[in-house]
Amino acid sequence: MESWILGLFVFLFLASAKTSKARNSASFYSNYYVTWGFDHALPINNETEIQLTLDQTSGSGFESKWRYGSGFFHIRMKIPDKNSTGVLTAFYLTSRSSDHDELDFEFLGNNTAPYTLQTNVFANGQGGREQRIHLWFDPTKDFHSYKILWNQHQIVFYVDNVPIRVFKNNRKMGVNYPNQPMQIEGSVWNAEGWASGGKRTDWNQAPFKAYFREFDINGCVLHDYAVEKCYSSHFWWNREKFWKLNPKDLKAYEHVRTKYMYYDYCSRYSKPPPECKSNQ
C-alpha cells in the first residue's frame, strides 16, 4: 500500500509540473497589485513572477484586483531559505468584514527541515481551525503548487495536486461555512510573536525572500455580495465531480493525514467540533 501511495504522489506531482508550464505566462499586474511594502516587492521575469522581501524595516504583500464568490485558486511559491524562524509566508483568501471569512496557507519559518505548513479556515469570524503538516519536500529549493478549491459543497487545500485538507459545507449541522466575497492575497511578514514558539527572528539572515508565480485566476468575480450567483454549474469547479474527493484523491488525502499531519485543532477538545468527523 505504501508503494502505491508513493506512486500516486509522484503522478500528482508530475501532473502539477506539466500544468505549470502552460500557466507561467500571466503577468502579475493582470490580476494583482502590491498593497504594502512597495519597496520590498520586485516583479521579475517579465512580470510573470514577484519577489517579496522581509527585513527589519518591512515585509510586503499583494492582493487580487477583484473579489470572488467561488473558484479553484492557485499560486506557485518558493519560500525563504536560511534560518527563517519567525518569518511567515502566506497565500490566502479573505473577506473585508468584521465577521470575516478566510482560507489560509501559512508557512511557519524554521531553521531546520521538515518545514511546517499550516492551514486555517475562518467562517463568520470564527477561526481556531488550524491544521499543521510536515511537507514531504523542501519548499525553499523550488516552486511548488498551492491550490484552494472553494464551492458551495466543500473547500479543499492542495499541495502539488495532493489534497491535504478538506472542509465540507456542514451548515445543516450548525457549522458556519465561508460565503462572503473574498480577495486573494500573498505576503511575507514577521510573525515571531506567535509563529516561532517564542524564538526570535535572526535578522543577520535577512533579507528573507519569497517568490510567487502563476497569476491567472479561476474564479467567479463578484461586484456585489450576491454570492449565490457564483454557485452556478456554469463554472466548472462547481460541477458534481468537485463536490467530494474522488477515490484516488481520497486515498492520497488519508495518507497525508496519517503520515504528515502532526497537529489538528480537532484534537484540542474532549468533544471535537461537529465538523471534525465529517472532514476526515
Number of helices: 4
- N-end to C-end Cα span: 19 Å
Radius of gyration (CA) equals 18 Å
* Total strand segments: 16
- Helix and strand run: HHEEEEEEEEEEEEEEEHEH
Give me the secondary-structure category.
alpha+beta
Beta-strand residue percentage: 35-45%
- Roughly how much helix do the residues carry, as a percent range? 10-25%
Number of domains: 1
Query: CATH first level: which class?
Result: Mainly Beta
Mean pLDDT: 92
Q: Which fold does the CATH topology refer to?
A: Jelly Rolls
Lateral strand order in the biggest sheet: 1-4-13-6-7-8-9-16
Enumerate the spans where pLDDT stays under 50 for 5 or more consecutive residues.
17-22
> Could you say what the CATH architecture is?
Sandwich
Shape: globular
Largest sheet composition: 8 strands, antiparallel
Signal peptide: 1-22
GO molecular function: hydrolase activity, hydrolyzing O-glycosyl compounds; xyloglucan:xyloglucosyl transferase activity
GO cellular component, one term: apoplast
Keywords: Apoplast, Cell wall, Cell wall biogenesis/degradation, Disulfide bond, Glycoprotein, Glycosidase, Hydrolase, Secreted, Signal, Transferase
3D architecture notes:
The protein has 280 residues and is an alpha+beta fold. Helix content is 16%, strand content 36%. The chain has four helices and 16 strands. The protein has helices at residues 2-23, 28-31, 247-259, 275-279, and strands at 32-36, 41-44, 49-54, 60-64, 67-78, 87-94, 102-108, 116-122, 131-134, 144-150, 154-159, 162-168, 183-190, 208-213, 219-222, 261-264. It is globular and about 50 Å long. Belongs to the glycosyl hydrolase 16 family.
